[in-house]
Q: What sequence folds into this?
């Protein structure tokens, strides 16, 4: 009993540590990559070299800020929304396999669990948007609901094809089944659909409609400041890391790779995917909400269905 | 029972519609413009620009100031293309006085004005990318404009509020290394234009966001007296530099780029093409420029003969005009400013009806307004 509790505590601390590290590292990486693309330096002063302490300094500043709740906001929901955002992000890490034995819990239903929990993000956005009692926040929340099914369906159907090939929903077994070929080669259409839909799920450019700065000021989190805002921010980058990890697990062979230890391979692949997503953000303009729905329903969904059908035929007959 | 909610023009707001104040504090109103927008979901039902947040009584102040004093004040109107304001004002005063301008001064005015046009269009295309959510072109633009501003600083002593033109000429001559600097800048600019087209204009998302969005038909544009690249993107080949060549513009060979659809895409493409034409003009002007005086002789205390005059020049935003009435004294009796931004902005309600909110921001950005000029 005691042993189990100690293990639970260790795993809890490990996931929390990984999440915080990612938030700090990815924010810094985002700003440096942005600087590199935009003929500027990004953070340089706080922490030498290259301002590596900047994110930590920002976090301290956010902790020290006054906690503002708008007078006309729905207090309870307003306070609850950041937690609804960050807790699922934490829970998502449970099924990520960092190495052959390095996983918090290898569930039989790992993939299903992952996508069920990640659906909470939209709930949090709607709660924040509604409770803020601000028109821009509300518009952000409306967009979240309107586009949800458009990208979630192709996302999950493209995963179904991978599950069919692997013959399991356990993330660990999916990784092991890619020993010879990673699924990005066997499932190119599925990978593309999944990647695009994952960008929409993450609310990243070109699909960052919920917080489209030039249109909705800051979208659903316009009224948030201080630590509550930091929770949204932390969750955003936590989700970026965990979704990159899922892309690596499902399509890029997970922790497998020659010479280097599995954990190193896994982290390298995660940050490569995260880098590509960050690269997109500083290169592309934003699509319009109706264009995203059109993309989801007219292109991604049929493509993922065809992909699933072809994969089924392959699994049954070959 | 809750009180009735009122929308635009005192009409009661229909159920399911909301009224959103976009601005004066908003990331993409390009200054302190307020637009009251009635939304149904994401669809814009109607929009109404509210002006006056940057009103500084420019026209009234002019009535108490002497003629040379007003020149730096005009810089503050369209602060992105200040040379054009100085130019149109100086032309008005000079034509009332019947002043002969030395030829070299005219060439210097053309060169500085066309450089300023490039700077202004750079900002226009950069901020338009920003409005569509592409942040990178915006910083690229400022990187290129930095070189341009350094040239301006060298010639005029200022980076934005130049105060370079004088009644009867210009403040000072260009330095010797000027042509080399210009060629260096043009090389940077050429590279930027190619990069910008690769990054943004050829991007399918950009095309989807701007093609056939905010279409201004030539009839509507002409009916509202819209001018500049904003109108030329719809087809009419109206450019004061060609239709009523002032200064020495009749001596240069250049095209007036026009669009066909009058959408946001065409406006961007026309602005990019105009930058290339400005480069042509500057190269020709530098080659043709004669030596000589840069300023006509004017009396110490400047008195303008009684009379009235309207002059206009083609600024990056369209026809900027001055209607000047003099009673023979040392300051204008009345000075009326025709600002192209104000006129172009008045087409906004027509353009945005029935579009989505995201398109509304794109259309507002594509008009390229400068609030300092809209409100004066």
A:
């Amino acid at each position: 009993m005691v042993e189990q509790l100690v293990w639970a505590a260790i795993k809890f601390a490990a996931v929390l540590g990984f999440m915080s590290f990612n938030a700090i590292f990815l924010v810094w990486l985002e700003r440096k990559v942005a600087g590199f693309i935009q003929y500027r330096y990004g953070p340089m002063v706080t922490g030498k070299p290259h301002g590596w302490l900047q994110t930590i300094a920002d976090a301290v500043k956010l902790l020290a800020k006054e906690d503002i709740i708008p007078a006309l906001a729905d207090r309870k929901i307003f306070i609850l929304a950041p937690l609804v955002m960050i807790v699922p992000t934490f829970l998502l890490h449970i099924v990520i396999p960092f190495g052959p034995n390095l996983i918090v819990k290898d569930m039989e239903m790992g993939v299903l669990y992952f996508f069920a929990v990640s659906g909470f993000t939209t709930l949090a956005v709607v709660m924040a948007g509604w409770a803020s009692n601000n028109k821009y926040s509300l518009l952000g929340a409306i967009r979240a609901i309107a586009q949800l099914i458009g990208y979630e369906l192709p996302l999950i159907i493209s995963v179904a094809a991978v599950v069919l090939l692997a013959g399991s929903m356990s993330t660990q077994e999916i990784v092991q089944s890619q020993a010879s070929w990673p699924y990005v080669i066997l499932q190119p259409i599925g990978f593309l659909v999944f990647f695009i839909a994952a960008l929409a799920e993450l609310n990243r450019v070109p699909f960052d409609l919920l917080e489209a700065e030039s249109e909705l000021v800051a979208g659903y989190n316009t009224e948030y400041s201080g630590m509550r805002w930091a929770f949204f921010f932390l969750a955003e980058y936590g989700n970026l890391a965990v979704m990159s990890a899922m892309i690596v697990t499902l399509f890029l062979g997970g922790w497998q790779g020659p010479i280097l230890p599995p954990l190193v391979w896994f982290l390298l692949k995660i940050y490569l995917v995260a880098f590509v997503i960050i690269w997109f953000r500083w290169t592309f303009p934003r699509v319009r909400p109706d264009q995203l729905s059109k993309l989801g329903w007219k292109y991604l969904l049929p493509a993922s269905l065809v992909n699933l059908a072809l994969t089924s035929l392959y699994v049954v007959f070959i | 029972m809750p009180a009735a909610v009122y929308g635009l023009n005192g009409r009661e707001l229909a159920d399911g519609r909301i009224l959103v104040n976009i601005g004066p504090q908003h990331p993409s109103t390009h200054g302190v413009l307020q637009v009251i927008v009635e939304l149904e979901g994401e669809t814009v039902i109607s929009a109404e620009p509210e002006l006056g947040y940057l009103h500084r009584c420019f026209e009234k102040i002019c009535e108490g100031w002497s003629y040379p004093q007003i020149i730096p004040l005009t810089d503050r109107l369209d602060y992105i293309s200040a040379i054009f304001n100085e130019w149109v004002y100086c032309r008005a005063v000079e034509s009332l006085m019947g002043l002969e301008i030395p030829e070299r001064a005219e060439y210097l005015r053309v060169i500085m004005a066309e450089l300023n046009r490039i700077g202004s269009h750079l900002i226009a295309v950069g901020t338009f990318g920003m409005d569509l959510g592409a942040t990178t072109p915006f910083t690229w633009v400022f990187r290129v404009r930095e070189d341009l501003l350094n040239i301006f600083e060298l010639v005029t002593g200022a980076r934005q509020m130049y105060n370079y033109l004088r009644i009867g000429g210009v403040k000072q001559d260009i330095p010797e290394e000027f042509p080399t600097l210009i060629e260096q800048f043009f090389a940077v600019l050429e590279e930027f234009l190619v990069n910008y087209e690769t990054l943004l204009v050829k991007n399918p998302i950009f095309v989807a966001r701007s093609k056939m969005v905010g279409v201004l038909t030539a009839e509507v544009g002409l009916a509202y007296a819209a001018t500049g690249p904003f109108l030329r993107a719809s087809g009419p080949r109206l450019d004061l530099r060609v239709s009523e060549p002032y200064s020495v513009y009749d001596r240069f060979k250049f095209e007036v780029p026009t669009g066909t659809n009058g959408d946001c895409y065409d406006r961007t493409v026309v602005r990019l093409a105009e930058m290339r034409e400005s480069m042509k003009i500057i190269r020709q002007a530098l080659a043709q420029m004669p030596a000589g005086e840069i300023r006509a002789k004017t009396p110490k205390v400047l008195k303008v003969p009684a009379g009235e005059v309207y002059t206009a020049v083609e600024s990056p935003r369209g026809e900027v005009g001055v209607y000047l009435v003099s009673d023979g004294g040392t300051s204008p009796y009345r000075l009326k400013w025709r600002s192209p931004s104000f006129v172009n902005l008045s087409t906004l309600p027509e353009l945005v009806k029935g579009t989505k909110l995201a398109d509304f921001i794109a259309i507002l950005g594509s008009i390229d307004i400068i609030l300092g000029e809209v409100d004066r």
